[in-house]
Design brief:
Homotrimer. By secondary structure, this protein is mainly β. The chain has 1 helix and 9 strands; from the N terminus they run βββββββββα. The radius of gyration is 14 Å and the shape is globular. The termini are close together.
């Protein structure tokens, strides 16, 4: 589960608008204040959470915006690792988001099972893109410990 993370996890994203996307609420209506949103028409927009230390990440759940614009997440990549090179967007890819229906939550399991890292990014490659996330949930165990010791 996502327990054990520090109480105040730093969130960083490109662009100008930042709202909560790790508040535990899967409310998918932007106007209700529970989604984050980069500036419109960005090149390679991204969102990042810093877990403060390395974890073995087994799954990432992403909730898409429900009131419009569901296609904005199409083609996004979940990247996990310990590097901040290119704002963390050069870390290895965990999974690709082909499409999440409006207002829905989808669970992504990393290719190959699990990945270790401190930073979890959602990166949307391309020009004239807008990244909107309504909830991101990271499921992990402390790095270096067996998952069976944690569950």
């Amino acid at each position: 589960t996502n327990t054990g993370f520090p109480p105040r996890i730093p969130i960083t994203q490109c662009g100008t608008q930042r709202r909560s996307s790790i508040d535990g609420r899967r409310n998918s209506f932007y106007s209700n204040g529970f989604c984050s949103h980069t500036a419109e028409d960005e090149t390679n927009p991204w969102w990042r959470v810093d877990l403060q230390r390395s974890f073995t990440i087994t799954a990432v759940k992403v909730t898409n915006r429900g009131d419009c614009c569901a296609e904005r997440l199409d083609g996004a990549e979940i990247r996990i690792g310990n590097s901040l090179e290119n704002n963390g967007n050069n870390n290895p890819r965990c999974a690709s988001i082909s499409h999440i229906n409006a207002g829905k939550t989808y669970t992504y399991r990393c290719d190959g099972g699990s990945m270790e890292g401190r930073f979890v990014n959602v990166f949307l490659p391309g020009q004239k893109k807008t990244l909107t996330l309504c909830e991101v949930e990271v499921y992990a165990a402390p790095a270096g410990r067996g998952l069976s010791d944690w569950i």
